[in-house]
Amino acid sequence: MKKIFKTMTLSAATAVFSLTLVGQSFAAAPSFTDLDKVAAKDKIMSLQQSGIVSGITPELFAPQAAMSEAQGVQLLVNAFKLNLDLVKFVKEPKATDYFVKATNDSWYANALITAAVNNVELPKDLDPNATLTREQFTHQLIRAMETYGKLPLINPVVVDIKDNDQITVEYSGSIQRAINYGVIKLSADGKMNPKAEITRADAAEEIFNAIEYLKAHQAPAAPTEALTATEGVKLITETLGLVDTDIQIKIDPNSKMTRESFTNLLMQTLQTSGKLPMINVVPVDIKDNDQIDILNTGAIQRAIAIGAVQLDSDGKFNPKAEITRADATEITTNVVDYLKSHQVHSDPGAAITATEGVRLITETLGLVDTDINIKIDPNSKMTRESFTNLLVQTLQSSGKLPMIKVVPVDIKDNDQIDILHSGSIQTAIALKIVKLNPDGTFNPKADITRIDATEIANNAVAAVKALPNNN
Length: 471
What we know:
- Helix 2 packs parallel to helix 6 (about 200-215), helix 4 crosses helix 5 and helix 4 (about 135-150) runs parallel beside helix 6 (about 200-215).
- The chain has helices spanning about 40-50, 70-80, 110-115, 135-150, 170-180, 200-215, 230-240, 260-275, 295-305, 325-340, 355-365, 385-395, 420-430, 450-465, and strands spanning about 1-5, 10, 85-90, 245.
- It is mainly alpha-helical.
- It has three domains: about 1-15 and about 220-345, no CATH class; about 20-215, no CATH class; about 380-470, no CATH class.
- The chain starts with a strand and ends in a 5-residue tail after the last helix.
- The chain contains 14 helices and four strands.
- The longest helix is centred in the middle third of the chain and has 17 residues, at about 200-215.
């Protein structure tokens, strides 16, 4: 089965662990009204707010109702955020391809397909409409928890279960570990009641306990293990003290990062946050420069200039090599050391000069060797229109931006725009490099800040990548 990458945005604040936010962003859900006598009420409400559990109606959860196999699978899919986003099928999958007792047009069909493709351990003869026992659901949950939480193998302290003789032998290990993890508790008389049907409330409580355990017991990554995008974002934000910063990455968050992708992400984050002072970069000769993505060139040259990364003895950067945690940590540490000795004096919210604007454009677009001819005072403050015009003109003159047909939009303050800049601004709007204000104005004469200019430059990079000739 082939896999493809999906473009997605990963927030640094949520990158600590994928289960910290176990669902999408939901509007406040109405409270269940049938949980007053349920001990796990608060846990169930927490899962409802996260979008993991839902009721038979918006107000009712039916806590004492038995959990079916299909409902159990859906709960696991929701809890571990499993999906098919990165999978490309040769033919459209059907639930019956994996479970013969399933129905392809049922409400649970997609959940069964998703679980099967993501290798959730389920019985081959699964009957979606059959009710789940406590031991069956606990076993499925623990196996999924250990797989997707990347938990290390443990030797659990064997607990005396009074009705252990009733537990299916193949489930006994999972149940012992479930007790050790705190996912389940024995009854007051020391029993598991393995063959009893599991209720919706009990299943939800087990899910909540599993997630809480995973939050507190993240598997330590080996220093020599290749870093994923999620781990890269976490490393960058925590090391640089930017835990509340949103980092936009257009790669699969579980993919392995390369030396160039990590270096580019690090330098772009520094630049966007305003932590990195403007420096005059003298490009060095990189022997394998032809292997570097042109859009990453500027970031890598800057990283070399500040001593964050070094070339090897052959003068190569090895851009496509996977980066280990140890190497990534060393690079970020080098950046921290540089920042300590090169404090940024310019306010990220202050207007940038023409010199800073040129440097920002050339480095963001990977054009460090490009000469940009501007007929303005290099120390003058740039406006929104002058920066946008310079950016678009640079894209076009460098060959990165082909001629495109632009349908002009109505700009409410168009009379304030220099006629020589109007074409560039219309082009930038068409490519979504810049946006108009809610009232339809552009504010062309307003000074542009480093933050705004960086956002526009990054939008330009995304726009260039999205053009048909760059796919």
